[in-house]
Amino acid sequence: GAVVSQHPSRVICKSGTSVKIECRSLDFQATTMFWYRQFPKQSLMLMATSNEGSKATYEQGVEKDKFLINHASLTLSTLTVTSAHPEDSSFYICSSPGGEMNTEAFFGQGTRLTVV
Amino acid sequence: GNSVTQMEGPVTLSEEAFLTINCTYTATGYPSLFWYVQYPGEGLQLLLKATKADDKGSNKGFEATYRKETTSFHLEKGSVQVSDSAVYFCARRNSGNTPLVFGKGTRLSVIA
User: Fold this and answer.
1) What are the b/e assignments for A19-53, b being 16+ CB within 10 Å?
2) Contact call for residues A50 and A71 (beta carbons, < 8 A)
3) Which residue among A45, A56, A100, B46 is least crowded, i.e. fewest CB within 10 A of its CB?
4) How far apart are the C-alpha atoms of B92 and B26, rounded to whole Å?
């Protein structure tokens, strides 16, 4: 099946610094990438949708200036957490819908971010 | 709107016990339905899916049937193993390029 590769899997950063998370589609072209956040013992909540070549759309309550999303090519989407704070510590995971004919979505491995 | 409701956990079972995790969805559109599993420290893996009413998804001894009349997609397994300990998410999706909507997840612990 299709593979989405997400890096890094774990990152620890200091408050005030920025962290970039990458998601690459390895064997298909991902025109759309969904970014989710999962707090401990909670479900995945959609943060934003990135589309190749256009601006990302953010869900209500998600700060677009804090969570910068770039989808510059059909195989790479990035999420940058800017000026990170401890409350941004979470599990971030990307997902591509895999195309109109695919009912299944393909997930990256996830990134556990810890801000200290 | 679109939502998924699944039973609250945690669920603790002895090995070889029967498992049911209830999941219901709001009846908007014609969603595809999914169960994903998340093992400790890992990302999500698709466990099974069903794309239309009366379809049964099955994998690794787990199964779930898409019931339109009760808007349900309950997950069942006849005999759980310790290795099934994980968090299980029910999810729905309306069409090809829309995001999945997840339930809150149910943590399953199976003890030997």
Assistant:
1) bebbbbbeebebbbbbbbbbeeeebbebbbbbbbe
2) yes
3) A100
4) 9
Q: Is A100 on the interface with B (CB under 8 A)?
A: yes
- Closest by CA to A111, choosing from A6, A3, A5, is A6
Written in H, E and C, the secondary structure of A48-84 is: EEEECCCCCEECCCCCCCCEEEEEEECCEEEEEECCC
Contact B103 A43 (CB under 8 A): yes
Please give, rounded to a whole number of angstroms, the shortest distance from the CA of A65 to a CA of chain B.
22
Nearest to B43 among A42, A49, A93 (CB): A93
CA angle A29, A32, A38 (to 5 degrees): 120
The answer to whether B25 and B92 are in contact (CB under 8 A) is: yes
Question: A1 to chain B, minimum CA–CA distance in Å?
Answer: 11
pLDDT at A60: 94
A44 Cβ under 8 Å from any chain B Cβ: yes
Nearest to B4 by CA among B74, B95, B96: B74
What is the block-wise mean pLDDT of chain B (112 residues), using blocks of 10 residues?
A: 87 97 88 91 88 94 96 97 96 83 94 96
Helix (H, G, I), strand (E, B) or coil at A9: coil
